[in-house]
Please model this.
Amino acid sequence: MQIKEKINALGSLGIPFVFCIDYTMRNGFVYELDSMPDGVAFCIEGKNYGNAKSSKIPKIIEKNPITKTDYLLKINAVKEKIALGDIYMANLTAPTKITLDGSLEDVFCASKSDFKLLVKDKFVVSSPEAFIEIAGNKISTYPIKGTAAYNGDKSVETLLKNAKELSEHTMTVDLLRNDLSIVASSVKVDNFRYPIIIEANGKKLIQIASKISGKLPSGYLLGDTIFALLPAGSITGTPKKKCVETLIEIEKYERGFFCGIFGYFDGQRLKSGVSIRYIEQTNEDFIYKSGGGITFDSNEASEYEEMLEKVYLAF
Model:
């Protein structure tokens, strides 16, 4: 049984399950909660499931990212597509090889993120960003666009007034409002651009979020609903289909489970997160994948620094 069909079946029966879907929507897993493998653990908004245990506080002791020159070439390639009118905004990402003092399990256990997933010896996600929540016939999504260091109320005000960040966030909200309209009616923006303060490696960061909601039709199926909204608009760009094609051409690497989604259905309510703040384990290395939204007004040097700043551990 394919992932979508299995989610449909378990959801219709009210059986609790955890699921994970990669960026391409071709790979992933669905496990009934009672038969979740030992190597899988997850946490949704403070509720932990699985057998992950560690008291070690891991550290990133070295970063080996893409060069600034190479990343700026990719940013300019995105801007060329924007100038041609092919796209309006794209979420450009890149892999950074890191030296990690610790394990993926250490990262999972130490993280304070709302959405965490561990697949032992493969990858860990410590994400602050919700994807969709479904309760009854109500569906909600919570895009995050805009990140900066928190230095008091003034820094929040500065980020909210930043024209580039406003443009990027507005386009993402518009995209996701349209996405929800594919599966739901009465779609509305409940809360536009509110700040969230999170802890990251002993520092505080501001992230700007919005809430969008709609009403699902009677008889909807969970799997069909989820797949109709993938990939997540906050990690692609607008228009989505053209951005996906553009990013494959420009990024030239496999995102894999990075920028996919994962979540939990408790029998009545489904909650899910976007798989960002992602570390992948290979035979020899740990790879941290990160990025940010690029608009025509993006400052190339600032975007490179943002991509690097997002290589952090969330505790």
